[in-house]
Design a protein that fits this description.
By secondary structure, the chain is α+β, with helices and mostly antiparallel strands. Helices cover 18% and strands 41% of the residues. Strands 2-3-4-7-6-5 form a 6-stranded antiparallel β-barrel.
């Protein structure tokens, strides 16, 4: 598996490579985000999580503010070539103000970002239209 291929997205997303604070089972670690959407994000942590794990995330949205969001781990995919696990995280209890901040950030995606996303995730041309 060379690239993580994203599919069946229900909501728009935007690439976000940023530090991510993650509290799980009483342990706080700094992880990395890959992309973000209104309903959740994809991360590539150094530690392992079980599906269904409840976590508390904090991260910074460029041009915005620091967000603190409760979430659940909903899937894990492994990139065998890179030996990295990617985790899908679903936000829980996202209030109106936080949702607005995320929606504004995601909607500001530039054409250049669309093309980088296409190349990074090996998406067909119509996926970035």
């Amino acid at each position: 598996m060379g690239k993580i291929v994203l599919g069946n997205k229900r909501r728009p997303r935007r690439l976000l490579s940023a530090p991510l604070g993650c509290l799980a089972l009483g342990e706080y670690t700094m992880e990395s985000t890959v992309e973000i959407g209104e309903g959740g994000l994809m991360m590539k942590p150094l530690r392992r999580f079980a599906n269904g794990s409840r976590i508390l995330l904090n991260f910074y949205i460029p041009g915005g503010e620091i967000l603190v969001v409760p979430a659940n781990i909903v899937w894990c995919r492994t990139n065998e070539e890179e030996r990295i696990n990617y985790y899908g995280v679903e936000f829980r209890e996202l209030d109106f103000a936080l949702n607005r901040i995320l929606r504004t950030y995601i909607a500001a995606k530039s054409q250049d970002e669309l093309m980088r996303e296409k190349d990074k995730f090996n998406l067909p041309e119509e996926a970035t239209a």
